[in-house]
């Protein structure tokens, strides 16, 4: 069992586990043995706080967060400290991967009080849900200018007891200011035009570390979304390729199992933090696949296939989905060490247990994995990768799509071993999963995935007859936002922030845009454009924080290239110089390679790009269109115009993240 | 957003916008009328201990600034005061109104109001992907 979950901690309170023992989240379960009387996220904790007139400690972390575990060991396992917490606070543990909306809402509120926040994120909140103080890691003993956690708790108790009016007044002011800011965020700005996009790319180029590659100083992250934006641009592609090549040869990559670590603590990438995240590896797989299509370089292929091996060999779960992450610590020869497993060679590793997985299945992140595996499988002609993508997609369609009997569409955010979390799904889940399904449909020719994707996107669009004034947002979560946050007035309509992966808004807008390219339905295009309009000038003023939105905005600003290759039914697409093979290598625009029967199935289902797409005289035929205006069909690959993005002078690209 | 600082002994002007006193003690020899304040947020001022240690020594301004910024987030009471001031600055900014931090110290550079103004006005640093660990 020790390897099944993250940091199984023995009970420190006389063997009596607290409420977290049955949590979906491995991170929460790792606190089940704490003497702290933890609640999971829900209305009960706030009701208890109201009844006992106490503040709430909302303590947010995630399984691969090193300092979260340090604090759990040092403070939350301490019976004396736990007694104080239990007497003066109601304590709530939150996995930010399970509840990203809770994390975002409290982080935004807490940032008005204290700067420089991160994780673990410990927020002190009124029973009504108003944040009034926060911090990150607190040591068990005071350290050079930093108070101990006990001192912080005592200061909060003192403020709650003796200065409550001041504290709650500030909390109310901040909540009102955030509500105003959220309302303003739904006011349409303007999408960046070609000049602004070039300026954003130039700003990113200027931030490149000229010595070691990547952006900025330390700590240093790959920043996959920004690399994806640059990879699609004539001025920026060299930087992106240079960075990918360097990252692939750096200690950030584990050459044995093929996965990338999350970040390096120093500028030259030499000291990684060893956790491996599904979202990083999915996005990087897609970038290296695209790099290979652009260059044909062996390094790009080798790194891409290595990541695919990691996704399918390490993160893939027996039940069909992909695990969220793999821990940085593991037990090597009986001792827990950070990164120790990765210092071993291949043979020595076989004798040790692998670092534990965070084996909860998140819908959105799995969508990223499905898209990347589908596209890599198509590009490299590796059916096993497409099969892995299909296993994950089928599992999600089977277990994460609820309420089908009522005709509604409701996604589950997270599950573990078939047990479903009560956490609400977010736009990220709808957008990333729909995108993954569309990419899978294009890679496999199976229309059922495209149909499922269309149902998901349709569910997020407001009813067609809704007047725009009543629905300023182009997308909404069909089943509503988290009810506890909503009761606290904290449901943020749109969270545009983009971290290491695309925001919910950009994800769903990207899925809608791809759906438009397949259906020619203007409603999807309009929704995608309004989604990016909302972001306005933020994109170009903070390009490193909005790579995926920039990439989608660039794609929306350029004519879309659409290539459909139709092969005779039953013909294996093995010829290395035939049209299907050319389609696999094509780096530009939307690409679909289907049989004649598959084309008809797409067309019959309303995907108009496939209408009347047939073979000629038993030969495969390529139909190349630009914004739905198509050239004469060709049967010889030599007659296809070259497919290098930017060769028209304008950026294109329908790869994941756009 | 526009944040300025101004000595309480200088005459108020229309383009001061919203005037907020950020000293812990009321300045000597100034009447409430003459100060023309919209608010007084005393808990954003340096603690008495820090102020005594610093003694407005220009040679120690950098270390003072560092200790002062740490203090601003160090307790729920100072954090609440900072949050209140931030809300005020944001509300003023929405109506195009300047916020002027008013102080009594003699030197327009060697004073805590300038450091506070920079702290509030500092753009959020270019955000990197989530999860950069806090430095303990």
From TrEMBL, chain B:
This is DUF488 family protein. It comes from Cryobacterium mannosilyticum. It comes from the Bacteria. PANTHER family: CYTOPLASMIC PROTEIN, CYTOPLASMIC PROTEIN-RELATED.
